[in-house]
Amino acid sequence: MKTIILFTVFILVMAAITVSAGDYTASFLYTLSDFSGTKPFSSARISQDLPKNEIYAMIGEAVSIFNSSGMEIYRFDYDSNIGIVSDVAVLGNGQLAILASKGPLTQLVRCNFRAEPIGNIDIKGFPTDYAGFSPNRVYSSDGKLYLVSFSAMRVMITDESGLFIKGIDLAKELGMSEKEREESGLGGFAIDREGGFVFSVPATAKVYLFSSEGKTRVFGRRGSAPGRFGVATGVAVDKNGNILVADKLRCVVMVFERTKFAMLKEFGNRGFKPGNLIGPDDILVDSQNKAYVSSLRSRGISVYQLSNN
After folding, report:
1. Could you tell me the residue range of the domain that residue 201 belongs to?
2. Stated pTM of the model
3. What is the pLDDT averaged over residues 217-222?
4. CATH number of the domain that 269 lies in?
5. Distance between CA 294 and CA 280 in Å, rounded?
6. What are phi and psi of 238, to 5 degrees?
């Protein structure tokens, strides 16, 4: 009798886990488009204007802005006064902080909402070990700018005027040697809704959570089975704190709950049908809990509605 009771409890627990995982849905909605049809981006970078719920897609020498319905509403191209744009962050006052390069020089340019230059944001008060720091992504959150070098695995945090607040050497935090740093690099980075951030390192097949108190948690295993990482790239956090990880090799997006890192869902899958993904890379989740996933092979940016009932 005791064995039967224990077996019954085991079955009920497993059923509860299955139901919980099954409750998470990711429904394909559309691909970002203009009036001519789908925008055939390949591996575009994605950022957002949270107050307006607008999406910025960057590829080559152009930046497209999309409304919450996925339609392009504005576009700006390469400007000799700015340089070639690598990333855009929206400041608290609605202005843009545009990370751009002019030859070997990387600069942070303050622009109005139409990307017309107002002036540079010069970084002030940084320590000497950040003198050669060259970021390739910029993020904005709660009045702060996060300048990130994916190759150097470093983060510089400033206020919106460019005044240095803090620098974080992620490779050192993870106990990596300089050789390991050179052979690694970040695959994705996202600001956490709890004040820290999340990042992936493809070389280790792991995702890391770095809290605002400086504590690090880690999860992930290499493999081809559901929940395992082939090449983990873009990361994002949904409205409930669940962690989304794009896998470029497996062509899926995985969703993990943040407590024990149990996998809740995989979606996308390799293919050319609507909702399929080819080499997914960048990913973000907007204020309406919609996930935007960038793909290779001119597959554009696919949009999914997330739900965790």
Report:
1. 186-309
2. 0.90
3. 97
4. 2.120.10.30
5. 6
6. -85, 180
